[in-house]
């Protein structure tokens, strides 16, 4: 296996090196300073040098707002500076051999801050040049709104996403993008996939202490990322590099909740680092009493997370990277104890508890070969262990993934870039319930070998086109039968080809500091093979992979010199062979398996508006209209009960959903309020799933309010009220959301 991986990496490197492009002598330089509108220097701003579609170099300004590039090739470049709270500043420069060009750049206030996006394509790009539906949540937004988890960030400011949490802190938190399933979203942390075997990911345990930004690309991205990237890609970019700095936060709030977090990042000479630790402790909703008089006492939650990143930049474009992350969480599971539409449960579980440990390790190297070639190789390993204790005893599960990814970017001419590469994944999962005929635990194994390529062509600053394709070989290893009559599964191999095309056209000038009008179109396909437990834990070796076809069309308009931005996107998704749980009857829920729905679809409209004034006001609003529908049931379902009928909507996809945020920042004071609303959804009885019955969950409205006051340069006081009006609602049936909650804290930042 190791030899195979090494061969794959060498093949990717040698294939592009054979282009025979010689290393050039770098002799042009560029330096300067970045200022805000008041004339103050701006540390930590991102400066990009590019020739239309391909970013050639990136650097952060130091604590004096300075930047310097010394290894550029003579020619004409676009220099773009981005920083949170400002629109991008864009200039064109001509660089001559043996000459260092000096410039001064002034940032301007705009409605939407320009940001760098690395997720939507194989190449790093400014957000304004991306043809997909992409949203970015910055660290500044997270800090100003005192956001606690990644799920909270996703639920408020991004259209097209429905976030569902089962109860209070630590409850299972799922993301539904554009009507897709909760396992249709690929989750990356600094490029490393962290989804479980089969695509599922629980957003409940992902902290924000070390996050620089969150990128969300909606629509299928399997042409670049392969399986699981069928509905969206969520990438978390962590803090590292820039002027040396440190930050700490201490919070205390209702329900016995406390949060402590520290992080640091910076650059010294050629070495950059980032490090963070966070602990969250909560008593949950302890003390709540059911109508029966029973008290809920087993929903406490404890989470600890540690992350370390390092980067060393050598000469001639060589970069070495490493990342380590470790997280652990422990939570009680009282079971469903809220609404009981099916009349199937009562009381709470005082015994059941769950513990999870996850680990991530990644190393990588990048190398620039002359003027035209960039290469990158990454090796990643993730492992998750879980222990669940219940009145019936203990059960353990474990999963691991090894990924090797090699990529080459070739600039054939200004504005024309070709990217190609391959990645290999080896996954393994085990569970105490997956055993052979002698009841010995056996692992479920899967291997994926993918080849991908993307071509991006930007003939002018107004026009952008891109196309990509990926070939995946997905192999599920043989699985022996067990003592419960489960059949023996033979080796299964699935070949998948997923293309994608996109188009962007600025109908008015593309300079993001001016008014502009833009049209976007993208189309693609995606695939998600069955997960380990969908095959092994149910009696259906013929389970087919889920597939999707998607088209979206978007319009954007900037007004008032960029202070107002309006965006609207219409999308249509067709889903084939959605995987659902089926059972023989409501009364005998133990006899269940998984099967495919033939066809279903989702169509909708996403609208987002934002405005910012020079007086410190910022307003953001989103609205999503979504219609999902089961079109056809698979005839192989037979007599098994699905709960679904033709014409039904899909689970936990609201028809209407919206959010509103108002932020005021003036000198030392920041005040915010946010409101979210979700219409009714189709939900399931939590004890029995879809075959236990489908019910309508009423919608809800919830308002948060808070603010912060800077009393010293390095010291800030924070306070917020979550669920201000103490609304009683359930995002998932049977699991009440938190009531009114007060949180106060202190944030310390040094530079």
Can you count the beta strands?
40
CATH superfamily of the largest domain: TonB-dependent receptor, beta-barrel domain
Radius of gyration: 26 Å
**Class per helix and strand makeup:** mainly beta
Return the domain count. Answer: 2
Mean pLDDT: 84
Largest sheet: 22 strands, antiparallel, barrel
The end-to-end span amounts to: 46 Å
Write up this protein.
- This protein is mostly beta strands.
- It has two domains: 82 residues, Sandwich (Immunoglobulin-like), CATH 2.60.40.10; 476 residues, Beta Barrel (Maltoporin, Chain A), CATH 2.40.170.20.
- Helix content is 5%, strand content 55%.
- The protein contains five helices and 40 strands.
- A hairpin with a 5-residue loop joins strand 20 and strand 21.
- The two termini are 46 Å apart.
List the defining traits of the structure above.
Immunoglobulin-like, globular, 5 helices, mainly beta, 751 residues, Maltoporin, Chain A, disordered N terminus, 5-stranded mixed β-sheet, 40 strands
